[in-house]
Amino acid sequence: MDEALLSQLESLQKAIIQTGKENADKTTRDLIIVQNRLYAQLESLSWLQRRMTIKGQLPPLRGWATSPDVLLRLHSHIMNKRPQVIVEFGSGASTLVIADALRQNGYGKLVSIEHSDHYGAQTFGTLQAEALEGWVDLRIGELEAWEGEHLNPEDAEKPSRWYPVSLLEGVENVDLLWVDGPPGATCLFSRYPALPALADKLSQRAEVWMDDTIRQEEKDICERWANDYRFELEYYSLEKGLGRLTRSGVNNSHILKPAYYGTALTETNAPERALGLDFSLNSSENKG
User: Fold this and answer.
1) Distance (Å, rounded) from C-alpha 146 to C-alpha 6?
2) Cβ of 54: how many Cβ atoms within 10 Å?
3) pLDDT tens for residues 40-58?
4) What SS3 state is found at 133?
5) Sequence-separated (6 or more) residues with CB below 8 Å from residue 182
6) pTM for the whole thing?
7) Per-residue CA distances from 196 to 89, 168, 204, 229 (Å)
């Protein structure tokens, strides 16, 4: 065989072997990441189940549902900070988790805003089964045109729609706003109206939590809220991401920082880790 051809074949063989090794290494790394993420969710689910006092099981927490790691922190936050008035947009597993924490605290109220009769009925049935309906004011109304400020362009294919503002009647002094709806397919930046609609109904110590901040739209909304309403913004490297907006100097609420901070967490700066026993969102933890 021609020496030049033999050399080319040897080089090709080495390249194939090297490529195979690199692909195998990448597959191994990817499997480790998936394994660690799955373990984190199972661990979060286990701790969440231990903390809750329900007799039945939680709804499925895959797909569109809020992830166990976020629900665990939500439950822990409510029990630690003891908010009196909570508003959520989008009912489901979070409704059950919040109601259970309120019952353990012994006081408080959740106003749950839902657009779907079907999912609203499921949520209410679950609450009744656990004798938690007394802790929740579940309000259901079909999405309608939103006339206020919005990030959705005026010429967008889908017009801006949101929950009926009438569903917020009587809501005051909200200590925690949990935003997990309406669905992203409603329109661009579908969750944006939540803070404009409730800005004058928040207490001085109010926090705003946004689910799904692995999506750019949710990040954009959080950053706009932080800038316009002078909140500080943190992102947490949970499975689907969590954006948390807080006011600086709760005891001196009239003195607010003029700017916000917040940087999306990536695989390189948000390593997987075991959860441990402390599930509270400390100001120094995973700060963007």
Assistant:
1) 71
2) 17
3) 788 888 889 899 999 887 8
4) helix
5) 89, 90, 115, 143, 161, 162, 163, 190, 191
6) 0.76
7) 13, 12, 16, 9
Count of beta carbons in the 10 Å neighbourhood of residue 120: 20
- Counted residue by residue, the chain has a size of 288
Q: Residue 196: left if φ>0, alpha if ψ -120 to 50, beta else—which one?
A: alpha
pLDDT by residue (tens digit) across 31-41? 666 566 677 78
**Residue 88: partners with Cβ closer than 8 Å, 6 or more residues away:** 94, 95, 98, 110, 111, 112, 113, 177, 178, 179, 180
Encoding tokens for residue 81?
């900070």
Note the maximum CA span of the chain: 89
Q: How much is the pLDDT for 110?
A: 98
Q: What residue has token string 């109904």?
A: 201
- Per-residue pLDDT for 260 more than 90? no
Kindly provide the b/e burial profile for residues 10-46, where b requires at least 16 CB atoms within 10 angstroms of the residue's own CB.
eeeeeeeeeeeeeeeeeeeeeeeeeeeeeebbebbbe
Helix (H) or strand (E) holding 246: strand 242-246
pLDDT tens digits, residue range 190-223?
A: 999 999 999 999 999 999 999 999 999 999 999 9
List, in sequence order, the alpha helices (H) in the chain.
3-51, 68-81, 93-105, 117-129, 194-198, 216-229
Instruction: Let me know: does 204 contact 247? Beta carbons within 8 Å.
Output: yes
CB 37, CB 272: distance < 8 Å = yes
